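Cross-check.
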Amino acid sequence: MENKTLMTDFYELTMAQTYFDQGETEKKVYFDVFFRKNPFHGGYAIAGGMDNIVEYVSNFHITEDDIIYLRSLGNFTEGFLSYLKSLTFTGDIYAVIDGTPVFPNEPVITVRANVIEAQLIETAILANFNHGTLVTTAAKRITEAANGIPVAEFGARRARGIDSAIEASKYAYVGGCCGTSNVIAAKTYDIPVLGTMAHSMICDAGSEYEAFLAYAKSNPNNCVFLLDTFDTLRSGIPNAIRVANEYLIPNGYPFKGIRIDSGDLAYLSKKARKMLDEAGYKTTGICLSNGLDENTIKSLIDQGACIDSIGCGDNIAASLERVGGVYKLVAVEKGNELIPKIKVTNDTMKTINPGYKKVYRFYDKETGFALGDVLALSDEVIPKDGYTLVSPTEEWKKTHISNYDIKNLQTPIFRGGSQVYEVPSVKERKAYCEEQFQTIYPEIKRSINPHEHYVDLTEKLLSLKKELIRKSVTASLRDKKDKS
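Predicted model, tokenized:
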């Protein structure tokens, strides 16, 4: 297995040199991974990337070849390089597992480790979390919009390189897609592999009819014709029906389907359905593709488009959206004391929630729906018989809840450097994702103007945050006064 420990930003290493020089290699710190706003202007995100994080951390070590390279840069002392040679991950990681709906400003991942280990793994954790969460969320939004219509992921050629394409196919499947066109991803993760045919084959043949006939003879049991190379209704459909009549049906093979990849998909699909039905092919499926996203899919359904399946690539594997996950220091151990830390900026949105925390989710006992989340300091106990959710930014907004079950969303992943979490199979993650998604209110799932899922702070945590902000502002004003 390729060693990827140096998949870290250079400043992590230069800071690590400083911590080493200061004799702080054993200082224990706490970092939270969270995001500040939902991607796609939506009401939720779906956690992803933990499988790759586990693999990275489990194999975390600096090789001799890495040391030779780092030495060549001329930035690091021999003492520090010697320290790196024996470095492994010895800390703790807690995380909300893949497939769980997550929301802004709550710790999806918490790292407790010595400061150098914690810093060096930051880049890889964020890269895996951001990509895995983005693709899983995109797939879930699109499959949710499809409202039960199967969605196949066709995005390999649009992805940002081979590794990204493989990962995207995996996370798209977890997020609800029925399969992938990506053969290596299908093989690696036991995902159903799907596909039709390309325009090039039709253009290369003597005629559309000849291309369809040749394809049917080679793929008689999985024959889906691409109709829009020349003219969907005047050429594509008639030629597909002709091949079905002359070859597929007489030889005992099914006329499985057609795909339309351009034009007015609503209009063309309805016309195609009518022509297929009139020809006696009422069970032949219609697949639509062509840069579809959740909004276009919803629009097609609203227009009465005839859709049996959807092929979706760009907007799953190569979305231009971002999750924006960040990795922020929230506490430091000093002797037996845990010192909470906070980042305060002029941008209120970037002021973090301090301290070592846990995130709890309340579930209505009658409906199973998630009522909201609360962030609590690690030593707090949440009552089981009634709780008042209070907005952390608008404290007058209060919601009292009762008759609920409560769950700590974070699961131990590593303890003392040892992996204690067994990563489920891709199929198990897919099933878990769907199960958890059903606990989220429909209003939160809306693609446009979704309702906000409550993520609140306990009174103790909110008081701590206010106090640290006050101290930070006071110290800043004092510094400005001293400088003047």
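Residues 136-317 form a domain with the TIM Barrel fold (CATH 3.20.20.70). The longest strand covers residues 326-334. Passed to J.P. for a second look.
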